């Protein structure tokens, strides 16, 4: 027996916005991936290191699922979320909406999905489930992972049950677009200013523009931070460019969101923000290349160059967000 909900299986660049796109298109709301990312105030920065990590992590977006909650709140969407420690109840939480003809978003650990070729634990991965049969689940993932894909049901169960950093307890969710929901273009300014305020006023020095400055200081020591710089530095660079970030640690997505906003808003502050993020996107791609080169050559100079570039990027993004924070004025 099988249950399949027909969906538009467009795979995007980033997992959470790919899933949001699938769920919202099914409800009749078709927004571009940069627009989903920006309306969800998805851009951020995190420098994360601890004795439990093999190597420092650079994050370019808000925590998993914060984007979904913010988007739903900003657009007045109906968001139903389930979490449970029971695998049986967790499966019931997805079969019920599927039986009613609605796809379901899932947060899980991508390590266990059999179509993933890169076996790295990531508990913040998000996919759209739109059907299943006796053996396999039918999912939509990013274009990089194949778009419309399937995975064995036992692998899906293991991915949903995984515990560790960024995981959730079998989290599943559905979205609805109620009558009278605000038009997305009317919510652009609140989305942009909320993102800017969070970026400019982080609670700790590892977040926002302060986090980029922290990364600039600490990146010089990365070769000494690992016994395998030839492996870990290129891997960090790949994560920045290719691990569902859309390139440039999500700055490409935010640049494109701001460009789309200029079609609805005529504002010098917006044009400044867009120009600065176009600059920043190029700089982040250059930074990733320098990190990779440091690992491949064994030389310290590329990390010193990356440190100087990160210091400049902290300034560029601070200027961009300062301009954008004034949009409401």
Write up this protein.
The chain is 48% helix and 14% strand. By secondary structure, the chain is α+β, with helices and mostly antiparallel strands. The strands form two sheets. Strands 1, 4, 5, 6, 7, 8 and 9 form a seven-stranded antiparallel β-sheet that branches. The chain has a two-stranded antiparallel sheet with strand order 2-3. Helix 1 crosses helix 2 (33-39), helix 6 (188-200) crosses helix 12 and helix 10 (251-261) packs antiparallel against helix 11 (268-297). The longest helix is centred in the C-terminal third of the chain and has 30 residues, at 268-297. The protein starts with a strand and ends with a helix. The model has no long low-confidence stretch (mean pLDDT 96).
Main sheet attributes: strand count, strand direction, barrel closure: 7 strands, antiparallel
The domain count comes to 2
How many DSSP-defined strands?
9
Distance between the termini: 57 Å
Domain Butirosin biosynthesis protein H N-terminal: 14-142
Domain DUF4872: 155-324
Pfam families: BtrH_N, DUF4872
Protein name: Butirosin biosynthesis protein H, N-terminal
Summarize the model shown.
Residues 155-324 form the DUF4872 domain. The chain is α+β, with helices and mostly antiparallel strands and 329 residues long. Helix content is 48%, strand content 14%.
Which terms summarize this structure?
2 domains, 12 helices, 329 residues, 48% helix, alpha+beta, two-stranded antiparallel sheet, Cathepsin B, Chain A, 7-stranded antiparallel beta sheet
């Amino acid at each position: 027996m099988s249950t399949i909900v027909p969906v538009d299986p467009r795979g995007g660049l980033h997992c959470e916005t790919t899933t949001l796109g699938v769920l919202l298109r099914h409800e009749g709301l078709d927004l571009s991936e940069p627009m989903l990312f920006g309306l969800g105030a998805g851009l951020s920065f995190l420098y994360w290191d601890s004795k439990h990590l093999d190597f420092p992590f650079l994050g370019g977006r808000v925590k998993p699922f914060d984007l979904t909650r913010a988007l739903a709140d900003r657009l007045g969407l109906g968001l139903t979320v389930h979490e449970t420690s029971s695998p049986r109840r967790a499966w019931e939480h997805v079969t019920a909406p599927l039986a009613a003809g609605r796809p379901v978003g899932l947060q899980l650990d991508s390590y266990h999905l059999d179509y993933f070729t890169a076996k790295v634990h990531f508990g913040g991965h998000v996919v759209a489930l739109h059907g299943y049969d006796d053996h396999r689940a039918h999912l939509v993932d990013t274009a990089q992972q194949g778009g419309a894909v399937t995975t064995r049901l036992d692998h899906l169960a293991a991915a949903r049950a995984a515990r560790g950093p960024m995981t959730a307890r079998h989290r599943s969710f559905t979205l609805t677009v109620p009558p009278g929901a605000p038009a997305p273009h009317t919510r652009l300014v609140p989305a942009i200013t909320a993102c800017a305020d969070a970026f400019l006023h982080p609670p700790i020095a590892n977040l926002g523009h302060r986090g980029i400055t922290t990364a600039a200081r600490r990146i010089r020591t990365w070769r000494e931070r690992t016994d395998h710089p030839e492996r870990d530095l290129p891997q960090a660079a790949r994560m920045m460019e290719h691990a569902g970030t859309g390139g440039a640690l999500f700055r490409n997505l935010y640049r494109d969101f701001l460009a789309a906003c200029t079609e609805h808003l005529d504002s010098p502050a917006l044009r400044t923000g867009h120009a600065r993020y176009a600059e920043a996107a190029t700089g982040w791609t250059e930074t990733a290349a320098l990190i990779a080169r440091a690992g491949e050559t064994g030389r310290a100079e590329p990390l010193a160059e990356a440190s100087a570039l990160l210091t400049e990027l902290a300034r560029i993004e601070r200027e961009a967000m300062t301009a954008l924070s004034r949009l409401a004025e």
